[in-house]
Predict the 3D structure of the following.
Amino acid sequence: MARSLHKPDFKTRLQDWLPKLVLSPSIATTGLFVYGFILFTFYLSFTNSRMLPNYDWVGLKNYARLWDLSHWWVSITNLGIFASLYIAICTVIGLTLAIFLDQKIRGEGVLRPLYLYPMALSFIVTGTAWKWILDPGIGLQNTMHLWGWESFEFRWIKDRNFAIYTVVIAAVWQSSGFVMAMFLAGLRGIDNEILKAAQIDGASSWHLYRRIVIPMLRPAFLSSFVILSHLAIKSYDLIIALTGGGPGRATELPATFMYSYTFTRNSMGVGAASAVIMLITIAAIMIPYLYAETREDRS
Amino acid sequence: MSIASQDSAVKNNRTTMVLIYVTLLVFALFYLVPLFVMIANSLKPLSEITGGNMMALPKEWTIEPWLKAWSTAQIGVEPTGLRPYFINSIIMVVPAVIISSIIGALNGYVLTKWRFKGDTIIFGLMLFSCFIPFQIVLIPMAMVLGKLGLSGSVSGLILVHVVYGIGFSTLYYRNYYAAFPTELVRAAMIDGAGFFQIFWRIMLPVSGPITVVCVIWQFTNIWNDFLFGVSFGGQDQPMTAALNNLVQSSTGVKEYNVHFAGAILAALPTLLVYIVAGRYFVRGLMAGSVKG
Amino acid sequence: MRAHLTKKIAAAAMLLASTSVAHAGDVEVLHWWTSGGEAAALNVLKQDLQGQGIGWTDMPVAGGGGEAAMTTLRARVTAGDPPTAVQMLGFDILDWAEQGALANLNDVAAKEGWDAVVPAALQGFAKSGGNWISAPVNVHSTNWVWANKSILDSLGISEPKSWEEFEAAMAKVKAAGKTPLAHGGQAWQEATMFDGVVLSTGGADFYKKAFVELDSAALGSATMVKAFERMATLRANVDENFSGRDWNLASAMVINGDAAFQIMGDWAKGEFLNAGKEPNKDFLCFRVPGSAGTVSFNSDQFAMFGVKDAGAMADQGAMAAAIMSPSFQSAFNVVKGSVPARTDVPNDAFDACGKKGMAELAAASDSGTLVGSMAHGHANRAAVKNAIYDVVTAHFNGEYDAKTAAEELVSAVEGAM
């Protein structure tokens, strides 16, 4: 840019290099601390590493073992259930609340921080609080019984077939407000003239949102999808605090699986193999997003 | 672009509005219940919790659990409470947030206003770092920190948080600056303004909204981190590690009231940030970061 | 290749350790004893060392029975900056010794005569290649039952001597409308019960064959199927809210008279004592019925990491000596519920259960029926231990029947080796 404007003298050349110079520490640290470490993990997944890294090459053995473990299958099945429900429910709740809040609501200033504050808590705190509320002995079920509703039953957290859904509840509680904020920002960014024109044409509110507003929120959908899917794949603290992976191993996710094989089972090789699978999954989601992101820029 | 003044074009009839208000209030309740449970139970004596009703207000109000969690609870060998760890967290979070935000702002500035061949690829590569599961970097990070002589120190922790914070801060500033008219930058350049002059005089003054978003995001993430803190913090462990020690203690009576008080204390700074700066948060998001 | 590299890592670790550990005259201690009684007991050690002019840098990391602490330790060792002493269990100690990361305590051990007073089975985890590497603090055992005496008395149940009597007793409690067995549904708690059940079903030799030698025939045998059937019986006698409960809340159920029995290691005693209960008056302690005469043990130790500097080594030696001193062993274990790691500590300060535990430990050690606890990492390495956990907890939660569980056990253990 600068080059086309001036003839190159020393100062211009410095100006030309300065931006790259400013960027270079970030490039260097990202190169080492992200991509270097990913390569390192990739390498470890082909070694016999147990307690600490070692460099005995074993080929694909760790991957073979990984896919042989029922524990791993449970983890990825759970991730499938958890991630799809979590993303879908957060999006629906976030969008609904944003649209409702956008109807000139009295007290919006009070409601908005109420919806948003769970995002400020750590997953450890969220998990601990929900563990309490969902526990049939002391939580919601007990409360209902004390209030006289004796037949009320809610014991999903103790049931290995339903426990994963309690993780969804807690996670949705934590993040749906944040999604609401993103959609609300998107809604407020839409030019009102378009809406007014459509309404003069006689479109109903429902139609208006379905045909015009929601399609215009595409960037917000995309951003929230990316943020939610990375939270889902990285979910670790919440599981530890809420269910500890139980009952049995019913709520293990790939992140807890990886941690346990790497650090508590001294099978670093298998842990690294599972990490590689996770990274590939993340890349499969992220690369199309990044591609779309950078392409839009050029146009 | 102001936040609540805009006229929504849609007109709703009365029943719809009632329905909307009911839904909004139900959700407000859903979001409030866990906080209510935590606060209510942190103000009860232990005897009221065991066997009592979780949703009930305290019969006998006490702030004893809060005092205990803050200054006398057993965290390690000595009953120090959470207080010293709170200070550790502050010492770690403040520089980490400032440094990662400054770097993010500069990166966003370069990537949008001083574009060069391959800049989008570099941005893409940096963005991917937001999504790396932190468990995998633990061992190699420890090696690097050891080599740098930063193992078990606050500076080491700051470094770690800055490194893994750059991705998001760059994302926020880049998307924000992308919407800023490049013509203004170009005009300044023709006037002979240099790289940093333009950043300082033109970009920074308009960066308020996105800085709020970036600072909130980084502050929350770094404050709430447990894994890095406990692995690299050494003797200066952060608040989350101390809370874990308080809550996870495996023997003795579980003092739930103290645990809840501790959990709220640990969450207080981030809660405050969200409540105080929450309205600017949506405004900042609106001003660019969700443009995708 | 591997040995060479790990040695290099360890050497680097030692070199760096000498330069970067706090300041001279300090020991840095990584542990997970953060709750009241335990921390108070550890404070005794701290003050003892301070009396000798040695400072104590505290590094408490609680959670998951030391799992979080072990992750921290790994980061510290990889960074070449290990703590001076680390609380550790069983095979973890030997694993770290194999990595060449631990110090040599032979001088202190010789001076204090550890070889003569520490039981042989325990030495297996405190020595590596003939060298002392670790100072044992205590000996816990896991095959205990804790019972509420007033429930038993009111239902006319006497202490069950055989498994059949135990089942009958639980049936009686159930009929009376109380929870027979207090239990917390976490993998390690189920494994702890499994320790006792396998000992009671197959005896010490079978236990060793299955869990120490990992003999496939034993792991898949009819005896193992029977052990799983007994676990299913236990499962039928717990309350419906057991899943995810902490062990001390299960103890509280027995203390408060909501449940009759709990199968748990002797650390549970601390809960009873804290609640003001007295052994033989308010509660009973006895071995898992059918396992009398055998003891499955685990031992908390302080493994000493390699330091180079002579002053630091002296401090480390002083800490090891202080841990092993009879007065500390007595003071600590009275609080903790465990028994001393040396046989020559007088039992005066201990209560009835403590005295019983000390006598039974000594007897089991003499007769060769003292076995390492599988559930607590004293029978095999972490990978195998967790593979067994997976099967035991899956069976307990109803995923497998007893026969399938035994088959799964064989394949899980083989897969983890």
